[in-house]
Write a structure and sequence with these properties.
- The complex is a heterodimer of chains A (246) and B (128).
- Chain A has 2 domains: 71 residues, no CATH class; 156 residues, no CATH class.
- In chain A, 76% of the residues lie in helices and 0% in strands.
- Chain A contains 12 helices and no strands.
- The radius of gyration of chain A is 19 Å and the shape is globular.
- The mean pLDDT of chain A is 91.
- By secondary structure, chain B is mostly helical.
- Chain B has 2 domains: 82 residues, no CATH class; 45 residues.
- The chains are: A mainly alpha (246), B mainly alpha (128).
- Chains A and B meet through helix 2, helix 3, helix 4, helix 5 and helix 6 of A and helix 1, helix 2, helix 3, helix 4 and helix 5 of B.
């Protein structure tokens, strides 16, 4: 009886399940980790862990859980990612100026390149997988958006998400530790930092732990990063990879 | 109304997807080449155009803002429905790539801030 009802309303049940995961993750992040690792990263780590319980469709293979694949499908994901562009203010990129633009371009390009090289040396050679993992080295959004646009397999998409999440965790923990050494103590370097790292939740958490006042400057450039990554990775960067690895 | 914002979002989304997919087939590739990126830039463009014309879109904006706050929950659902068992074989890749990319980004911060500091002080001089 209950199974029937939940199967018929899978997407709604998925809203509930994800809500519970998010609530517990944010609670854990706040109370136990003292916000040192963002709740979003914890929630994604839990989700990747839950996916172990299933098979090729992760948790969606289990009874009751089919709706997770609908909620997490590429249509709603891309739709919500595009919606984040509403927070972007063109006037603000002018304030970020030259340093903001340079750091964004270098940030996306070098993260992608390094990701591709590491994937290549660890045994991946097909252009779609390389591009997807390189995109995951930008952020955990750019990875899956690029992967499903190009038709990458589910495990490669999972790897690209995991790569992006590792980046968030390292950024959140290490930023306050290295801030002094890399001169992260003024708005200009915070803007450069946001553009180079790009992963919004990691940049915000890392800067908050360093100096609360720097957060808006880092967030300013980081908001543009995902859009730029979603534009460049599946297009220009993919063509370059195709030229080298076909 | 919220639905105006959602409809605008849907419009930008579809135009971007169509552009990306046509661009792909034009070059002889199957797949969507940068569609989400095109959609995002289109939305930014339309949004700032409306604001510059002083069109009051606060209410419609809420429809878009709702979806933008849903992206983390959706990414959580997406992560939970991937083939993670198969991905475990390459799990080290995620750790190595994530760590190295972040460390190199840290090291680039002083380099690029030193280039742009001159730019910033130039700006300040111009204003004087």
């Amino acid at each position: 009886m209950i199974e029937k009802i939940i199967d018929a309303n899978g997407l709604v049940f998925a809203f509930f399940v994800v809500g519970v995961i998010m609530y517990l993750s944010y609670l854990f992040s706040k109370k136990i980790l003292n916000n040192k690792i963002p709740g979003a990263a914890i929630a994604i780590i839990i989700a990747l862990g839950l996916a172990f319980l299933g098979d090729e469709k992760g948790v969606a293979n289990l009874p009751y859980m089919g709706g997770m694949a609908i909620l997490g499908g590429s249509m709603l994901r891309d739709f919500s990612v595009v919606a984040t562009a509403m927070g972007v203010d063109v006037v603000k990129i002018k304030n970020a100026g030259f340093s903001g633009i340079i750091s964004l371009l270098i940030g996306v390009t070098f993260s992608f390149t390094l990701g591709v090289l590491i994937a290549f040396f660890m045994g991946y050679s097909d252009p779609i997988s390389l591009t997807t993992i390189g995109a995951g080295a930008c952020t955990y959004i750019v990875g899956p958006v690029t992967g499903s646009a190009l038709g990458a397999s589910s495990e490669i998409i999972a790897l690209s998400v995991a790569t992006g999440v590792v980046k968030v965790v390292i950024t959140s923990i290490c930023t306050p530790l290295v801030a002094g050494k890399i001169g992260l103590n003024n708005p200009n370097s915070a803007m450069v930092f946001g553009g180079l790292i790009g992963t919004t939740s990691g940049v915000a958490a890392g800067l908050a732990a360093t100096d609360e006042k720097l957060v808006p400057y880092g967030a300013l450039t980081a908001t543009f990063y995902t859009g730029l990554g979603c534009l460049l990775c599946p297009s220009v960067f993919y063509f370059i990879i195709l030229a080298y690895f076909k | 109304m919220n639905i105006y914002g959602v409809a605008l979002l849907a419009f930008c989304f579809l135009i971007g997807k169509i552009t990306g997919t046509y661009l792909g087939s034009l070059i002889g590739l199957s797949g969507d080449i940068g569609g989400v990126g095109f959609s995002m830039f289109l939305l930014v463009f339309i949004n700032s155009y409306l604001k510059s014309k002083n069109v009051n879109i606060t209410k419609s904006e809420n429809g878009v803002l709702f979806w933008s706050t849903m992206y983390i929950p959706i990414v959580v659902a997406m992560s939970a429905s991937q083939n993670v068992k198969a991905a475990m074989l390459g799990g080290w890749l995620a750790v190595v790539a994530g760590v190295l990319v972040t460390i190199v980004a840290f090291m680039l911060v002083p380099l690029i801030s030193s280039i742009s500091k001159e730019d910033l002080s130039k700006k300040i001089n111009q204003n004087d």
